Every structure is written in structure tokens, then in C-alpha cells.
Amino acid sequence: MSVLFNSCRDDDDAGDGGDASGGTIKAKVSGSEFKADGQLATATYVSQGKMLTIYGTDMNGRAVQIIINNYDSSTGTWKIPNGTGSIGVVASYIEANTSGAQTWVAPYEGSGEIGEVKISEFSASGSVKGTFSFKARKQNDNTSFKEVNEGSFNLTVKTY
User: Fewer Cβ close by (within 10 Å): the C or N end of the chain?
Assistant: First the structure.
């Protein structure tokens, strides 16, 4: 069995970068405000593997993670899923507490197009800015969903 990770970018408008201040990831998760900043919000780019990861966690144990596989350092829009049949973009929302963690993931089997990530600015030695939205399904529960909307990030990139 083999799994192919691929990412396709739309050449359309990459958006305005959202309104997150420097060092911040923010969004609304099913209507509730989410914000991660400082050392709790990161962007990493693995140049050889062409993978961009955007991650943030807040002080309440909630986290948002976005991974763009085969990222080519450009601006544009990446759909979730990307429509090629492979997993180019994976987004997740996590709630952790003392009894464990619950994770909602996009895409999921049969999801169709359920979100997008727009990169409006990227520099491997500088910053990444953009917006995102997605609908995620809870792992091991086909009836529980989280809507992540109005997401934006403005982060310094760590390149490896």
C-alpha cells in the first residue's frame, strides 16, 4: 500500500493576508474565538521535503494545525482537499485536557471540497501570511464536526 501526498495551487487571488497581528494565528471555531500567539504560534518550512506547517495552540489546550505538502514557496490558494485525489493539504483542530485529546480533521472520507488556505506572502527566511477556513470531522465519530472560519496567520518562518 502506498500513499501519495501532493498539493495543487490555484492561480487565483491569494487574498489580503487576513488581519492577524505579527506572531499570531486566529480563527473562529464553531463560533468561539481562537487565538495563539508568541511561542505558541509557529510556521515551519522543510525546503527539501517542500512541506509548510502552520501550528498554534492557546492557553486552554486548543490547537489549529495546517500542513501543505509539496509546497512550492509561492502565493495562492490551496483547496482542502485539492481535487487531485491526493492529500495536499491537511487541517486539524484539537482540544486537549487532562483526560486526553480530541481531534477533528479535514479532509475526511467523502468530504468533497471543505476548505482552503490562502497564502498571500511567503519568504523562507522571513514570514508567512494568509487566511484559512475548513470543516473538520472528529476522528472516530462521523457525526461531530467543527467549522473553522475567519482564520488568519502572520508568522515568522523557521526553515529547515
Answer: N
